[in-house]
Design goal:
This protein has 11 helices and 25 strands. By secondary structure, the protein is an alpha+beta fold. It folds into 3 domains: 106 residues, no CATH class; 188 residues, no CATH class; 68 residues, no CATH class. The strands form 8 sheets. Strands 1, 2, 3, 4, 5, 6, 7 and 8 form an 8-stranded antiparallel beta sheet that branches. Strands 10-17-19 form a 3-stranded antiparallel beta sheet. β7 and β8 form a beta hairpin. The N and C termini lie far apart (57 Å).
Length: 400
């Protein structure tokens, strides 16, 4: 067996008959563990200490010692990351090696998205040249979107302010106007009211303030793995008809106010791990990592289950199947109609428990409205006479 430091092509000193005990996990069943070896001890030779940055010294600069390595045994070869667990001159260097998903999860441990997209890297900044050019591009994405755009632009409500006398101000992102032409509203200097000491005061905002694009999830995943040194070769969030429409919202009102756009301003403040956990929980998206060629495939569980099997493994089972029978329990699901910390304008409380009851109460009185010609990629379906039932008129927006 041979363990070689990938960057320097230096082989580590190993004792005779040295062996590594490795465990390879299927990410579909064991996401948190990943593949890797059990701890193993390398001889404490000067060569090995140097290869790992002298982990035996108490004055060492690096506090987390990892090296990308190539493990070979005969015709078998795997790439991975060796992590130093402890080291001393008398006992040697204790390491384990992560492969595939094990190596990847170690890499992204506690790594936040804003940290990954730090503005120090020019890849993480888009320079439009001027605020006017940035606004022009945002208007183009709004009016003529296409699948190749990494962003989407549409109007969202950020907050609602209300003073003691009942005056209400809505704070929007990407507010749209019909006059004089349909498009983004805040293309010049503009004023708005903010609540200060229970009174609204007027302030001025520069052009471009209040406009921010939303990064599509498929493009975000590509950029995440690219920054981590991987190539994403299978990405259903860019190819699936519905999933490719998903965007990551942000509330950055000054995103393009300087004529540049920083990815760190528009990505979520969660960690990479939390984002991937969400994709697994919401969409059944599983990551398959290949350490040898640094590639990642995102597979959906639904697609895996309906694929034709490559091989029947029944003959390899250790024993016959065994069924367990337990008495069933009743499960009752109820909806939570109380939402905390929201303005009275937005509430989940209804006087009907089901949609069928709600529709029957208003004689199934539905109607559709025609859209402006510019909004050709959206369909609106609205309900009439529902003010008392759902507190406010409801409108569903569905991307077509």
């Amino acid at each position: 067996m041979n363990i070689e430091i990938y960057d320097t092509n230096q082989s580590l000193h190993l004792p005779p008959e040295f062996e590594l005990e490795a465990s390879f996990k299927n990410p579909l069943f064991s996401k948190d563990e990943g593949s890797g070896t059990l701890p193993a001890t390398l001889p404490g030779t000067p060569h090995n200490f140097k290869a790992f940055g002298f982990p035996d010294r108490i004055d060492m600069a690096e506090r987390i010692l990892q090296r990308r390595v190539r493990v070979t045994s005969g015709i078998y070869q795997r790439m991975g990351t060796a992590s130093v667990l402890d080291a001393s001159k008398s006992e040697g260097i204790n390491i384990n090696i992560g492969f595939d998903e094990g190596e990847f999860w170690e890499r992204i441990n506690n790594l936040s998205l804003p940290e990954l997209f730090t503005a120090e890297n020019q890849q993480n900044v888009i320079n439009y040249g001027s605020v006017a050019s940035a606004i022009t591009e945002m208007n183009r994405i709004l009016k003529t979107p296409n699948d190749n755009d990494e962003f989407s632009v549409f109007e969202i409500l950020l907050d609602v302010a209300k003073n003691e006398v009942g005056r209400t101000v809505l704070y929007k992102l990407n507010e749209i106007t019909q006059n004089p032409n349909w498009g983004l509203k805040n293309t010049g200097d503009w004023q708005e009211f903010i609540l200060l000491d229970k009174e609204f005061i007027q302030i001025g905002n520069p052009r471009g303030y209040g406009i921010s694009p939303f990064l599509k999830l498929g493009f975000l995943l590509e950029k995440i793995f690219d920054r981590l040194g991987y190539s994403l070769i299978e990405n259903p969030f860019k190819t699936d008809t519905d999933l490719k429409k998903i965007v990551v919202l942000n509330n950055s009102r000054d995103a393009i106010a300087s004529g540049t756009l920083k990815y760190s301003d528009i990505v979520p403040t969660c960690t990479v791990n939390e984002l991937l956990d969400t994709l697994m929980a919401k969409f059944g998206a599983v990551l398959f990592v290949n350490s040898n060629d640094r590639t990642i495939s995102i597979r959906l569980i639904r697609d895996i289950l309906f694929e034709s099997p490559q091989e029947d493994l029944t003959k390899y089972r250790g024993s016959e199947f065994k069924n367990y029978f337990e008495r069933g329990k009743q499960l009752k699901l109820t909806s939570n109609k109380n939402i905390e910390n929201l303005d009275i304008l937005v509430t989940a409380k209804t006087d009907k428990d089901t949609f069928e009851e709600f529709a029957a109460a208003y004689s199934n009185d539905f109607y559709t409205i025609d859209l402006p010609a510019q909004i050709n990629n959206l369909n609106y379906c609205c309900f009439s006479n529902v003010i008392s039932a759902f507190t406010r008129n409801i409108c569903c927006i569905i991307n077509d």
